[in-house]
Write a structure and sequence with these properties.
about 425 residues, alpha+beta, Elongation Factor Tu (Ef-tu), domain 3, OB fold (Dihydrolipoamide Acetyltransferase, E2P), 4-stranded antiparallel β-sheet
């Protein structure tokens, strides 16, 4: 017959069971904590870049490609339809305002100029002859007017004398009447001559104005022909370097056709492009930096090209110092469009780990380990990235993307001391 177990025995047995379970649990916890530490990879930090989180200023920017081009560039065209005789200078040659670039066939133009010159001389001769004719006619009219005035005065005196004789009975009334009529006819003739002289003076003014106008038009035509001959010598209006010759000897060129280009290679600007989706990142007057030959040049966005070409918007940057020796036409450079300046903010050096603003996972040094940490990054400059959260000043962060490619799933790593 079974005996009931004592309470003290049961209590001791339960205590032993609890102790055994707790020991087993402690063993499993120890294994959980210790075994992973033996499985963590060990990395050599000398192969990777470490950077310290610091506080400071950041100038954020957008980088685009650009090309150097001259500010002043002249397109030279042919003023006449003719043929090219010879090329006097070639691309790369330095020229000034007295240098002829291309020799054109100007024989026909010179003949036209001589014809116009002769027409001007003939017109000047006609004007001089007309003036002489008008002068002679004016003298004749003035002489006739003086003679008629004397005749009128003589008839007036005779009429007055005949009236006096009539009063004393020394002449007849018929004679007095006849002298009065002669005097009045002479006065009418004198008035007619005066009117003719006044009309003649007005005609002289009109005729001479017409002749002078015709002569001025001919002289203007001759001046234009002379200017056309001077332009046909194909000389630049600025000192610079020939960048293009667009014709060959023997080729026919039309009036207005481009034949050469000359650029001033001492003053430059930068022409850049930005995708139309980033149109809000560029505006006129915006500060910009141009990187060329390890040198940063400062400038501002001077103009934006309306419209979109191939999905890009073109803009120009005017440099504060546009005569930097490293500037060469058609040279490709990097343009940084300044977006904003942040003062006293958390930052880490920019490197290839940075994939844009947003959340990221970075390895942060913690004693003898590297722990993967969730951080939030903001905008960047060429040198730094803004840290919005997840890090503090003084933290050591791995900024080599190679470590993240080699250990994409590890949460912690050991490093060699």
């Amino acid at each position: 017959m079974d005996r009931e177990l004592s309470k003290s025995y049961l209590r001791k047995r339960n205590i032993r069971r609890w102790i055994s379970g707790l020991a087993i649990l402690l063993v499993f916890v120890g294994l959980f904590l210790i075994v992973p530490s033996f499985m963590e990879p060990t990395v050599d930090l000398e192969k990777y870049r470490l950077a310290e989180v610091s506080r400071g200023d950041i100038i954020t920017s957008v980088s685009t490609n650009g090309k150097v081009e001259p500010v002043y560039q002249e397109v030279i065209t042919s003023p006449v339809h003719t043929k090219v005789r010879a090329i006097l200078h070639h691309p790369g040659d330095t020229v000034d305002t007295t240098t002829s670039l291309i020799a054109l066939d100007l024989a026909a133009l010179r003949r036209r100029f001589q014809t116009v010159k002769h027409e001007v001389a003939l017109k000047e001769n006609q004007v001089e002859r007309k003036r002489e004719e008008l002068r002679e006619r004016r003298l004749r009219l003035q002489a006739d007017l003086r003679s008629d005035s004397l005749q009128t005065e003589r008839l007036k005196a005779r009429y007055e004398k005949e009236k006096e004789l009539l009063d004393i009975g020394g002449t007849s009334r018929e004679t007095v009447e006849q002298t009065r009529i002669d005097y009045r006819l002479s006065r009418l003739e004198q008035q007619k001559l005066q009117q003719e002289y006044a009309s003649f003076k007005r005609m002289i003014t009109l005729d001479l104005s017409s002749l002078n106008l015709e002569m001025a038009m001919k002289r203007q035509e001759m001046t234009e022909m002379r200017e056309l001959l001077d332009q046909a010598r194909i000389k630049p209006s600025l000192c610079g370097v020939i960048t293009r010759i667009g014709v060959t000897p023997g080729e026919s060129v039309a009036a207005g056709q481009e034949v050469a280009r000359v650029s001033n290679l001492y003053v430059f600007r930068i022409r850049g492009k930005i995708p139309d989706k980033m149109v809000d990142r560029v505006y006129s007057g915006q500060h910009a930096q141009v990187l060329i030959n390890d040198t940063t040049l400062q400038g501002r966005v001077s103009s934006l090209t309306p419209g979109v070409e191939h999905g890009d918007i073109e803009y120009s940057v005017k440099l504060n110092s546009s005569s930097y020796p490293g500037l060469k036409a058609k040279k490709h450079v990097e343009i940084r469009l300044i977006q904003q300046q942040l003062n006293d903010t958390l930052r880490i050096p920019n490197a290839n780990y940075y994939q844009g603003a947003g959340r990221a996972e970075l390895f942060v040094m913690n004693g003898g380990e590297l722990l993967r940490r969730q951080v939030r990054l903001g905008s960047c400059s060429y040198d730094y990235v803004v840290v919005k959260s997840g890090l503090k000043a003084g933290d050591q962060v791995v900024i080599s993307s190679a470590l993240y490619r080699e250990y994409p799933d590890h949460q912690r790593l050991k490093w060699k001391k």
